[in-house]
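Trying the structure run again after the queue cleared.
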Amino acid sequence: MTKKSDCRISAFSAVCRIALLAIAVLLNARAADEPFRVDYSVEVGSTDDTHFHVVAEVQNIRQESLEFSLPVWTPGWYTIENYARNISRLIVRGPDGKRLNHERTHKQSWRVNTQGVASIKIEFDYNATKLALNQAKIDADYAFFTGTELFVFAEGHRDCASLVRLKFPAGWKAVSALKETDDPRVFSAANYDELVDGPVLMGQFDARKFEVLGKPHWYVTLPKGAIQDPKATEITDSLTKIVGSAGKMFGGLPYDKYVFFHFFKPSETRAAGGLEHANSQVSFFARGEFTALSPIEWMAAHEYFHVWNVKRIRPAQLWPYDYSREVETPLLWVSEGFTSYYGNVLLYRAGLSSRPEFYEAAAGSIAQVESSPVREFVSPSEASASTWLSYDNHIAFELSYYLTGRNLAVLLNLSILHDTNGQHDLDDVMRALYADFYLKNKGFDTRDLLAEIQHISGRDYAEFFKKHIDGVERPPYETILGYAGMKLQFSKQRDGFGNLHATLAEQPDATEAQKKVRDAWMKK
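Done. Tokens:
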């Protein structure tokens, strides 16, 4: 005979078991809905050791195997660096901490069996001994890296979000182009492209905050004390004007924050000068330029215009980035050449250079290209596509797509102004590319650029492209510069490098139509 109380206990137990089962099912369902993600930690244990210790925690795996890789290059600097060569002590561990076997599938990629495994940890040391635009370095008072060097990519999971946790010696601080969190040692990224595009500096440095168009900007300098007031204030004032002039052109700023990383020490490789990122730039300046403002302004303006041109307005071949190999594009004469032109434009519109200085820069670029015999054999598009041969090395027969692209920007700008009676210009082309391609999540090709120019100008530019961009015919400088009442003159003398000297001057007898084009060209 069963007692009534026993029945109640049994019924209660059954209800509890059902409830617990329901909770377990719910928790498992929620776990199944958790997105794949990879979080990273980067540790500087000791400045005596030149190794970053990197841990990638991969969570919510639902596949039988996972391939992960490290980039071989950094976008914007077109050289293969094979960052995997700096890796040592690579270990993959399962959720129980036990070591998992992995195989190397390519020089920079590995595969691990994840069947029945929901999470893994990938750990390694990264040897960081070179300070450069595309390298990592640990020194006595700082550590610097960009994500392409340290962060492994989980194949097939480009869009997964990440956190980056930094560990560094006492007395240090950190700044990054990555998104800040409540913890000053933790940053976040919405996807892998954002993650590897954000430089990180830890250590002792100076950082000055200023605001432009409602967005925070940081001027970060190394070594600490290299730039002091009043020079620091003068520089940030100039940067404010540069940012403001670009923001005015595009109708706002496409980022939440921006960081200027300026290193006042020499690069330790050929990767010197400046390098653009989506919401930051990194530049090196020689010690002799500590107190010289103009090189800082020019570099800042050039790299800053890349916020739009190449980081967002991007050739189709670079959309999306393939970090595993060389990627050629015939459009670097636009990505770099137009940016070189607009670097000077921003300085002029910001009131940091004069009209004569603007003309001098334009004439100097034309003179350099026209002094080179290579121009008769290599087109701007061909020079762009071959950049991997020459970007970090000297080659026997090289044409600068920086200079040729700058010249073409001047000519296309004036030609469009002439076509439209001063109503439209190259600014409109750049804004159209931004709206029609970047905002639609795609890159552009040469035909797209040609179509935008023809739509805005109302004239066929196919022959111009055929002759002067895909071909090697000398552009009609004198004719097009004449649209603005400008006179281009070459001297017969050459400098020590074999370059001609050229001047560009306003003609005193310019017509009203020419003056209208000139005034539209030199607008502020």
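The longest strand covers residues 51-59. Worth checking whether this holds up in the mutant runs.
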